[in-house]
Design brief:
Helix content: 10-25%
CATH topology of the largest domain: Porin
Radius of gyration: 33 Å
CATH superfamily of the largest domain: membrane protein fhac: a member of the omp85/tpsb transporter family
Largest sheet: 17 strands, antiparallel
Strand content: 35-45%
CATH class of the largest domain: Mainly Beta
Number of domains: 4
Number of helices: 8
Number of strands: 28
Length: 667
Amino acid sequence: MAAATRIAATPFKAPVAVPLVAALLLLGPSAAGHAQDSPADGIPGAAPAGSPAGSPTGSLDGAQPESPPEDEAGPAGIRYDVEITGVEDGSLRSTLNDASTLVGLQNDPPPSLIGLERRAETDRDRLQVALRSAGYYDAQVDIRIDEPAAATASAGGNAPPAKVTITVTPGPLYHIKTVTVRGTGGSTLPGDVATDDLGLAPGSPAVAQRVLNAESELISRLAKRGYAFAKVTDREVVVDHSDDTMDVTFTVDPGPLIRYGTTRIEGLEGIDEALVRGRLPWKEGQVYNPLDTDRAREDIAALQVFDTVRVRLADKPGPDGETPVIVTVTERKPRYIGGGVTFSTDEGLGGHAYWGNRNLFGGAEHLRVGVEVGRVAGSSGGTSSTGNDLPDLRFSVNYRTPDFLALKQSLVVNFAVVNDQPPAYSRVATELTVKLERPLTDRLAISYGVTAERGRVETEEATYQTAFIGVPLGVGWNGTDNLLNPTSGQRASLEVTPWFPFGGDTKSPFTSILFNGSTYHDLGNEGRYVAAARVGVGSILGTSLTDIPPNHRFYAGGGGSVRGYGFQKAGPLNRFDDPIGGRSLFEIGAELRIKVTETIGVVPFVDAGTVFDSAYPDFSEPLRVGAGLGLRYYTGFGPLRLDVGVPLNPSSGDARWQLYLSLGQAF
């Protein structure tokens, strides 16, 4: 029989309950820190701070393979194959593979049999810790090395690798028996600090990480009751091998009840302090709640004039529990410039440039002046013979002031001079909009105001002198996790705008209604496979299609609509092959966003839609369907999008394919 090295580890047996030390100590220390929120940089859309300061991380210390010592690394060593047997559970097998040095360093063979044996000895302890942390406290680990094969493998050449077999006998899975929470020195804990919903219900698996999570939850519960400096002074975990159970006891020092003291704001330079104080949701003397400081951090960051925002209590509680609050901010540079370029085969080359000041008068007033140019080359802009031979031009001035008349309500003023040359018409106009925007909840917002426009719109068949007053009303819901690259959640918007003529050729008022909704579902982990779908429905009520100026009609087709078709071209055309537009709109789309690497992704997609002469989609026109494949390059400010689409049921004049290049996902 061939000789073999055997390294075995058997569980520690005792007739009575014994303290569990190794697994939980390696998993993390007891939560000796405060219950108040950890200071965190605030940015727009940033998530609230995570675990309380000093709480356990819950990471499996030693579970990841370590780099080999220098004298054990190198290509000329003992090659070996390693196999873990005796484990049927896939999750447990994955845990053991992650913890195993033999598995993790297999491509870095040791220089000698002694080095291989040393690696196996390390695995014995590491695997036992991993098994205990998973709830297996009576496990056995046996590691065998085929020595003759090891000697042959050390000779190099084409010799077969040594065989290392790790035999694991997990034994029974241990379960929670009791969970006890007590105050320091036998004192009574404040409030209703129940052991329910801690993830440690009697009969549940005795997994070490769940114990650590329960400890963090206890501290969080006390913090929400105002005990910001609560800490776990002792965590006693007892494993009873006689009935395969675990008893857990937490000893907690709640500390004093904390109330808000004076608030100090640090780091302000050009921003009015009153603006920041107006976004603090507490009053002096009120009982502390970490949700208040989270909310303050988010609301201050939403002003978009700070690079970082930190909101925290002082390090020590004040007299009678009144504790100062410290708000620390770092201001962004007030002035900025920027620009960008877009391209698609249907709209040609375009670009934009802008200058802005995000703190015009000291109250986070935002002024932005911009110029946009479109359809510079390679587009089908303008109708067949009308137009002014100029590209699309838009000069705009946008102004926003926060907390206008009410907290979080913004006044928005937009002025623009435009020269539009899309396929359907040619338009020169001026526009002015004044509106209020107000969030109702974290996800729901409304807007309302007045808009005015005056201009001239030309088609092959008519010329419209237009002058309208509109009353735009909007409501938006955003439950997604990211604005430019959502991976989960839903978003929806509804816009209703009654339009009233005050001169010009059009005499009939009308009302435009547009709904857009989209949903996103993460099929894997961390957004590597995301299924996305959208729907858009529009309707114009109050007058006939011919009485509606072409710039107010609905159109389908293009990079943000039905890909595979030219801009405005996924709908009925007139005798000049120019888009007619419609009084109603219907669009649907779906795509699968696949991340190949951290920065590269591919996106197969299909879109469908068109417009109708009727006030509601009656499907008298066939839906135009397009499909294609996209490429994404993920950056820190959002994905760069390159889509190539083909029309599946094209009209006679449609191109065979379309290309779209822009920033952000299609929807």
